[in-house]
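(Structure overview)
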Amino acid sequence: MEKAYAKFHGSYTNINGGRPKVALANMTGGIADGFSLDTPEAKEEINSGALWEKCLEIRDRGEIMCAASHHGKDTDKNSLGIV
């Protein structure tokens, strides 16, 4: 999907720093929604398992899901080693 989106926009450079939810909406004609994991509410949802349940509901409805991290280089890692 990313390769097709980059090709549509001329190159990967032209989509650098873009938001995956916007790309998915553009490519599918759908409506994008999103949420951040950096909020106190999100941390509560993670700890309680509610976020996992939300992800399962999205999957069960047959919707497309994606995840993204903050901008940076592919070599930038957080304290858990996640790029």
